[in-house]
Amino acid sequence: MSVIEIPVGPQHPALHEPIMLRVRLDGEEVVGVDVVTGYNHRGVEKLSESRSWVRNIYLFSRICGICNTVHQQAYVQGVEKLMGVEPPPRANYIRTIMMELERIHSHMIICAIMAEVIGFDSLFMLMMRDREVVMGLKELIAGNRVHADIHIFGGVKRDIDDKIRDTVLRKLERVEERIKYYRRVFEEDFTIRKRLVDAGVIKYHEAIEYSLVGPTLRGSGVKSDVRADDPYAAYAEIPFNVITRDEGDSWARMLVRLDEALESVYMVRYALEHLPGGPAVPKNIKRAAPPGEVFSRAEAPRGELFYHIISKGGQNPYRVKVRTPSFNNIVNGVFAYRGARLADVPVILTSFDPCISCTERVLVVDESRGVKRYVRLKELSRNQGW
Amino acid sequence: MGEKLIRYSPWLIHFNTGACNGCDIEVLAALTPFFDPERMGVKLAPNPRHADIMVVTGAVTKKAASRLKRLYEQMPSPKYVIAVGACAISGGVFAGSYSTVSGADKVVPVDMYVPGCPPKPEAILDGIVKLLLKVGRGG
Amino acid sequence: MGELLNYLRNIAKEFKEHVDQGRRYIVVIDAGKVREVAAKIRELGRETYLSTISTVDLIQDGIIQLNYCFWSLEEKALIVLRVNLPRDNPRIQTISDIIPGACNGEQEAYDLMGIYFDGNPSLRRTFLAPEEVAKEGVFPLRKDYKG
User: Fold this and answer.
1) Domain B2-134 of CATH type 3.40.50.12280
2) Any idea where the domains of chain B sit in the sequence?
3) C69 and A295 in contact by Cβ < 8 A?
4) Strands B11-16 and B53-57
5) Subunits that touch chain B (at least 3 Cβ pairs < 8 angstroms)?
6) Contact status of A14 with chain B (Cβ, < 8 Å)
7) Distance from B50 to chain A by nearest Cα, in Å?
8) Predicted TM-score of the model (pTM)
9) Residue C19: inside a domain, yes or no?
10) Contacts of C128 in chain A (CB under 8 A)
11) For chain A, what is the mean pLDDT?
């Protein structure tokens, strides 16, 4: 039996990070997947060692444009611990609001991409349209649609006034209504269920053994959320539910995300209604940290984000280790493809919320004949054209 | 010659060369109904061989640089390149890293630069329109 | 304190508790014991996952520090297994066959820091680092590398 090898990626016309999957096939069945990484390796950890503590805030937020505030949170809260700075409660609430808005738009974008991958283009377009409301809210609060850059040691850079608060609260109603609608679509739609249910099943203990994190882990029934287990910012004061589902398939992972987005809407609303008084913007900023080390964790939209920050004193960090959630989910999650059909590969990959993209263009290699052909992943997922 | 060929409907191909996704989600946003570029005939090409304009984002990592070059070579002439975002212009915050070449113009010829971190979708569309004007459409 | 933490307290060369933010335990062990401890963590901590492997090049002390960071869902605590390796020959046995989640961390630590994990077949250069760097045989995250 000849095994066919198909590289998926790394460059591609739609979005996000370049990575490549090398899929080995026996007929229609996937026998193995290797991940080829490094197309997006920018050497951030090394760069950070030569930059000042403050400049690094902006470097780390640019690791990921989608989860930028949570990267800043993890870095800033760690350095604040080293510096002995405590942000005021109002600043913590504003940070939390930004992080939850980010979670809403991140979960919406991946659900939209999932719709596109399975060929449901109208749903993709509709979700992208409604996501613009959230982007608008981010811009209203922080001044920028994508990179909020609102964190600074000891607080935030912009305060929220009553007018902004009322606008956000009003627009959230629309967001809530749309997310509820999309949740119903994902739950009930025949096409979506047909493609997602039972694709890439991950069992409870497998998810833990392979160090999967975030909605991927919670989709397998594991109740793990940094916001609840290891609270930071204002999460200890804001009530929310940790969403889990037991099915462990791609469908469960997407529903976890939609439920979480809804939960985030409630959290933003609660935070805005209970916004503490007092200052949020610090008068002056510390620029040096004493020696020490700190392990800082935060819950990014894709899962646990881990920062290990070491200071030897002075203006620069000695070493910052960053572990992003997708690094665990994509590289370790390859076992989930085994036994799946070729057309399920993009669905399973998307269900990990990998900052995918790149994956739409595919090189088909038939080893027995030595033929190479380029195929679009979308065609692949629709089981046509190769 | 060039202006005639892309006069009607310039198709884009987007390549992320190691960006933070910030520019990429903005390029994506610029191509979806809220901003609606199809009214200008602009749409995403499925394949570099169908594309007229390449939108490059990201700091161009060394690993992605060879891919970028190959992708550019696969596009039919006339072809144009737009560098979107601070990273694609000069490396942005990642300039000086051991892993990036810092700037798309070090690998392929760039016709239009759209600055910003990330640029707004309006700015990206504006960059495309300016490029079209530059090569002669309507100008 | 649970069974797992008691076990680690007994086996450790050094056992520190940090309360910087949430619960953090730092457990320093010998390099030779890493497989034994990993197997025990697997056995006692069914709800404990390996969050990441963090590496630090302490050039002045001539050591490379390896931190296996576990998050325990039962304890709601971060358990850091710390191993110090000599900087001139950083070798350690792999734990990726005991804990599959260690595989990506070991690959990264090998490619960027040059720690060799005996028994891990998937180690390779250019996992993350660009080819030029890999060809020179240098490791970018070491302090003596000037990129």
Assistant:
1) yes
2) 2-134
3) yes
4) parallel
5) A, C
6) yes
7) 11
8) 0.90
9) yes
10) 37-38, 41
11) 83
A77 touches chain C (CB under 8 A): yes
Q: How many domains does chain C have?
A: 1
Say yes or no to pLDDT of C78 above 60.
yes
A139 three-state secondary structure: helix
Give the domain ranges of chain A. 4-39+334-381, 44-323
Residue (of A346, A269, A383) closest to A110 by Cα position: A346
Helix-helix angle C3-11:C34-44, to 10 degrees: 170
Complex confidence, ipTM:
0.92
Tokens at C90, concatenated: 């950083």
Torsion angles phi and psi, residue A159, rounded to 5: -95, 165
Distance CA A229, CA A232 (A): 9
**Looking at residue A183, what is its pLDDT?**
94
**CATH for C14:** 3.30.460.80
Domain A44-323 has CATH 3.10.20.30: no
Query: What is the reported pLDDT for C92?
Result: 93
Give phi and psi for A292, each to the nearest 5.
Answer: 160, 175
Q: Which residues of A touch B120 (CB under 8 A)?
A: 145
The predicted structure's pLDDT at residue B65? 87
Q: Is residue C143 part of a domain?
A: no
Structural contact between residues A154 and A85, judged by C-beta atoms closer than 8 angstroms = yes
Pairwise CB contact (< 8 Å): C73 & A205: no
Residue A157: the pLDDT is: 92
User: Hey, are the CB atoms on A46 and C80 less than 8 Å from each other?
Assistant: no
Residue A359 has pLDDT above 50, yes or no: no
Chain A residue nearest residue B47, CA to CA: A13
Cβ of B117 and A18 within 8 Å? no
A-chain residues near B46 (CB < 8 A): 13, 376, 378
Rounded Cα gap, residues A137 and A110, in angstroms: 19
Q: Do B19 and A132 make contact, defined as CB atoms within 8 angstroms?
A: no
Shortest Cα distance, chain C CAs vs residue B26, angstroms: 26
Of B62, B96, B97, the CB nearest to C132: B62
Beta bridge mates, A293: A310
Question: Tokens in use for A266?
Answer: 């409630």
- Determine, yes or no, domain membership for C141: no
